[in-house]
């Protein structure tokens, strides 16, 4: 289910809208990883070429997870990028994830 952010014309809004495809999976509500989620992970990586971009988008994704109910399956979240064949560390693995790293 794609949930549009209220401000989708910003990178944060775009990332949150895209990551909406992954929220059911990382929240543990959907047992299977969708093609749409992997496409979203690739799109999110493209939005984060610099460390500053990664920190900002990561914080947006943490807010997205909190807004979606605050449930995160850490093992699914930590393996998400790899399962999609994407090398990125921008995907938060918990609601207390430190995006500054």
Sum up the structure in keywords.
51% helix; disordered N terminus; 5 helices; mainly alpha; 101 residues
Percent of residues in helices comes to 40-55%
What is the string of helix and strand elements?
A: HHHHH
Major sheet: none
Which structural category do the helix and sheet elements fall into? Answer: mainly alpha
Overall, the morphology is globular
Rounded to an integer in angstroms, the radius of gyration calculated over CA atoms is 12 Å
Number of helices: 5
Terminal residue distance: 30 Å
Care to count the β-strands? 0
Strand content: under 5%
Which spans have pLDDT < 50 for at least 5 consecutive residues? 1-7
Q: Mean of the pLDDT scores? A: 89
Question: What does this molecule look like?
Answer:
- The chain has 101 residues and is mainly alpha-helical.
- Helix content is 51%, strand content 0%.
- It is built from 5 helices and no strands.
- The chain has helices at 11-19, 23-26, 35-46, 51-67, 74-83.
- The relative contact order is 0.20.
- The model is unreliable at 1-7 (pLDDT under 50).
Secondary-structure blueprint:
Layout: H1 11-19, H2 23-26, H3 35-46, H4 51-67, H5 74-83
Helix pairs in contact: 1-3, 1-4
